[in-house]
Amino acid sequence: MLENQIEEIIRDYETELRYFVYKYVSDWVVVDDIMQEVYLKIFLRWNTFIQVVNIRSWLYKVTSNQCIDYLRSSGYKTTLLLDNLEEIITPGSFSTENKVIKWLDREKLFDYITSLPFYYKTTIILYYYRNFSYKEISKILCKDIAFVRNNLYRGRCMLRELCIQEDFTQLG
């Protein structure tokens, strides 16, 4: 009986939840993994559902939390950075930055970005690499849009300073 109810709910909401997850992660392979976790959580937490009035909002909350957990995971961040580090910083923003990036190898850039405080590096990755909007990042981080803008600006400044310091070290 319970399994039939869960199967029916999954069948009814699967498509819209999959698109919802895709908005978070922009990768269909990852969507499948996240949805498997969501199905497992639905099954394991079915007893809490009985107290919920709106099934749709409950499903979206479970799915959203699973997406946030994935985006906060260290495996996601490592994979994201190693895939294409050069795209994290937009070339053309700063002339010194362009010079430094030309000789900077992937591992060094990885070290710089990972050395930034959590919210700065996360904001830089989500904005430049994953192409999330300020609004989307604020939802992912559960923070205000002003917080996202501030962290993006400060994170870029910190990254630029690290690159400039390394540039002077290399020249000296």
Give an overview in words.
This protein has 172 residues and is an all-alpha fold. It folds into 2 domains: 2-72, Rna Polymerase Sigma Factor, Chain: A; 74-171, Arc Repressor Mutant, subunit A, CATH 1.10.10. The chain is built from 10 helices and no strands. It starts with a helix and ends with a helix. α1 packs antiparallel against α2, α1 (2-25) crosses α4 (55-72) and α2 (28-44) packs across α4 (55-72). It has helices spanning 2-25, 28-44, 46-49, 55-72, 74-83, 95-103, 106-115, 118-129, 134-141, 145-171. The longest helix has 27 residues, at 145-171.
List keywords for this structure.
mainly alpha, 172 residues, single chain, Arc Repressor Mutant, subunit A, 2 domains, 81% helix, Rna Polymerase Sigma Factor, Chain: A
In short:
With 172 residues, this protein is an all-alpha fold.
Explain the layout of strands and helices.
Blueprint: H1 2-25, H2 28-44, H3 46-49, H4 55-72, H5 74-83, H6 95-103, H7 106-115, H8 118-129, H9 134-141, H10 145-171
Helix pairs in contact: 1-2, 1-4, 2-4, 6-10, 8-10, 9-10
Distance between the termini: 73 Å
Q: Structural class of the helices, strands and pairings?
A: mainly alpha
Number of helices: 10
Helix-strand pattern: HHHHHHHHHH
Query: How many separate domains make up the residues?
Result: 2
The CATH architecture category of the largest domain equals Orthogonal Bundle
Low-confidence regions: 84-94
**CATH fold-level topology of the largest domain:** Arc Repressor Mutant, subunit A
For the record, the CATH class of the largest domain is: Mainly Alpha
Say how many strands there are.
Answer: 0
Average predicted local confidence, pLDDT: 75
Biggest β-sheet strands, sense, barrel: none
General form? elongated
Radius of gyration over all CA atoms, rounded: 20 Å
Helix content: over 70%
Residue fraction in strands: under 5%
